[in-house]
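Box 3.1. Reading complex inputs
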Amino acid sequence: MKNRSKFLARAISLVVLMQFLPAAAVAGDPEFHLLVGRMSAYCQKRPMPFMGLVSFIGNRFTPPGVGHLQMAIFENVSPLRKPPAGELDSTLQDLVGSGYRPFVQVHDNRNGDQTYIYVRESGKKCFEMLIVSIDSTDAVLMKMRLNPDAMHDWMDEPVKSGRGSAHGGGIDVAQEGAAKQPTD
Amino acid sequence: MKVTKGRSKSAAILFGALLMGAFVPAAFGQNPKLDIQNLEPLAKKASEVVDVNLDGALLRLAGKFMTDEDDREGLEIIKNLKGIYVKNFEFAKPNEYSQADVEAIRGQLQTPSWSRIVSAQNKPEGETSEIYLMTASDGGTVLGMAIIDAQPKELTVVNIVGPIDMDKLSQLEGKMGIPRLGEVGKESKKVEGHHEKSK
């Protein structure tokens, strides 16, 4: 009986703690918070709740060389909020800011998915990658940190990595062989 | 009065120089950057289009992690480059694009400053590779490069902007979206093996 209450108490505290994780995760990176805010204002949608928790769990499964994964998903974005094809590029660049350089773009004509990948240097030997993926109804914003080995792999195979990333498996494709974790 | 006359003469010379400066690059078409962003007919036919944009800032960034001994020559090349741009089209079925669709790119390479140095065909596989160089008017300095790599279900256009040391180019093969050209190069010697100036 005593053991059961102890277990329950632990479980409750874990659940309570997890409820606070999303806010903590977002608050930990004011810039990502700002980007999510901009994206939210643009899409006129709030991001899906508990993305901080999803990102927290996602970080456990990132391949070597990738870390600090943060994610925001905007569901059921009105097609009216989607800029015309020719303007998407400049609209997104305005949203992410001039610090990020456009690196790879993937346009999938089969399902209308468009993925924009931006990079910038972060600290002495780290790189930050921002992935914005938009389909007919949803938008996804992802930010992650890459160590030089992981970035090296991206530079070696930008087409393959970009394509893989647009299909949801790019990080794995890109990071084969990247063994070191990013450093702060 | 003398001063005024001298000043107007200098102003006229300066104006003339500015005018020449504005027209000279256009006249000689010495811009090695191709317009590969708007290849609409191909983009519409492709099932997937991938654009890689490695401008000067990104190349400098790339240079920071090319610290291996193997990367030394590659680093030497990219530090002088202004950009590497790759456009890759993937098609659902073989032969979904025609040679006419590729003309939008080839058309840009039909100026006197561009020369086709390699044209290799692998007929059984239906693959063709072409390499073009833009050289300075002195004929020596390479200002830019274009690669068209056509496969039945895939077309890749690479545009390298900036001075390139051809002897070291192999260091970039298979990197930054640049196809491996070693085999194409060998084959091209059999197929063409000469320096063909674009008309």
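In summary: Residues 106 and 148 of chain B are 9 Å apart (CA to CA).
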